[in-house]
């Protein structure tokens, strides 16, 4: 609710005269006081790493781009703490944090990235949103605290959620590794290589199909659902109330359960 400051409320002003004053006051309060823009910055590397960002990030993969470009806009106390570096074959965009900092949605900056086709993406110590199309390269996520990462087709993926973050991916050509500590969720398309999953807490993993070795370790109430494909070999370990479901086939199984968790395999050999 908008509240009139005491000094303005105490003024003895005729209603018609007060209207323009109040309109001007509201207009002033609605304009962001400190906004900043940086970039586009040009970087070089086979991998782009986004480290420590509190942001909404939009990634465009371009077949015609030669360099990585990054721009940002938002509150100057956020944008002003960005640094840009080339570190060998890695380009790094880093945001320095203040201790015990609490941010609202309006404090998030917007970061726009263009990647040359074939550039890998790494996201570390992140809060916010990342949206990208088909990466067609490797994706690594470490310490997603909260927010959502949505990426299309990737070559391989290593995903770590430490909190309530969600990750949504398209098809994965090769290996998939998932580690969830908390209530995070990971959803992917088809996988073409080894799949390993570890859930500590109430997290969930949902995979369209597998084709290769699958291992799942669930400690707590987390769940794994695989909707099709063949797991060979399959190793499942459950300690708690979590469930593992494979609506496909499995061979060379090793199943270990303690607690009320359940393992369901549609076609077990």
Strand-helix topology:
Layout: H1 6-9, H2 15-30, E1 35-43, E2 47-51, E3 54-62, E4 68-75, H3 76-79, E5 82-87, E6 90-95, E7 109-116, E8 120-132, E9 139-151, E10 157-163, E11 166-169, E12 176-182, E13 185-190, E14 195-201, E15 204-220, E16 223-226, E17 229-240, E18 243-250, E19 253-258, E20 262-268
Parallel strand pairs: 2-6, 2-8, 3-7, 3-8, 8-9, 9-10, 9-11, 10-12, 11-13, 12-14, 13-15, 14-15, 15-16, 15-17, 16-18, 17-18, 17-19, 18-20
Antiparallel strand pairs: 1-4, 4-7, 5-6
Report on the architecture of this protein.
With 269 residues, the protein is mainly β. The protein has one domain: Pectate Lyase C-like, CATH 2.160.20. It contains three helices and 20 strands. The protein has a 20-stranded mixed sheet that branches. A hairpin with a 2-residue loop joins strand 5 (82-87) and strand 6 (90-95). The longest helix is centred in the first third of the chain and has 16 residues, at 15-30. The N and C termini lie far apart (64 Å).
Poorly predicted sequence stretches spanning 5 or more consecutive residues: 1-33
Would you list the SSEs in sequence order as H and E? HHEEEEHEEEEEEEEEEEEEEEE
Taken from the alpha-carbon principal axes, the silhouette is elongated
Would you give the CATH topology?
Pectate Lyase C-like
Characterize the main sheet: 20 strands, mixed
Number of domains: 1
Distance between the termini: 64 Å
By DSSP, the count of extended strands is 20
CATH hierarchy: architecture: 3 Solenoid
Q: What fraction strand?
A: over 45%
Helical coverage, percent range = under 10%
Assign the structural class, choosing from mainly alpha, mainly beta, alpha/beta, alpha+beta, or little secondary structure: mainly beta
Q: What's the CATH first level? A: Mainly Beta
Radius of gyration: 24 Å
How many distinct helices?
Answer: 3
Mean of the pLDDT scores?
A: 88
């Amino acid at each position: 609710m908008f509240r009139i400051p005491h000094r303005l409320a105490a003024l003895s002003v005729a209603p018609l005269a007060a209207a323009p004053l109040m309109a001007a006051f509201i207009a002033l309060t609605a304009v962001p006081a400190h906004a900043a823009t940086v970039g586009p910055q040009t970087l070089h590397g086979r991998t782009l790493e986004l480290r420590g960002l509190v942001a909404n990030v939009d990634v465009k993969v371009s077949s015609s781009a030669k360099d990585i470009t990054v721009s940002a806009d938002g509150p100057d106390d956020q944008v002003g703490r960005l640094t840009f570096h080339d570190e060998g074959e890695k380009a790094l965009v880093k945001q320095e944090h203040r201790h015990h900092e609490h941010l609202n949605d309006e404090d998030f900056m917007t970061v726009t990235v263009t990647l040359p086709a074939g550039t890998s993406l790494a996201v570390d110590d992140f809060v916010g949103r990342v949206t990208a199309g088909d990466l067609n390269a490797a994706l690594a996520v470490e310490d997603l605290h909260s927010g959502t990462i949505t990426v299309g087709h990737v070559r391989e993926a290593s995903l770590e959620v430490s909190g309530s973050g969600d990750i949504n991916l398209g098809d994965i050509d090769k290996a998939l590794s998932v580690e969830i500590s908390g209530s995070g969720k990971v959803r992917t398309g088809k996988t073409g290589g080894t799949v390993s999953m570890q859930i500590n807490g109430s997290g969930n993993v949902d995979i369209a199909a597998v084709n290769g070795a699958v291992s799942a370790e669930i400690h707590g109430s987390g769940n794994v659902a695989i909707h099709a494909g063949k797991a060979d070999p399959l190793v499942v370990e459950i300690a708690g109330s979590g469930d593992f479901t494979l609506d496909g086939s499995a061979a060379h199984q090793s199943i270990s359960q303690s607690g009320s968790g359940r393992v369901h395999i549609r076609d077990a050999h």
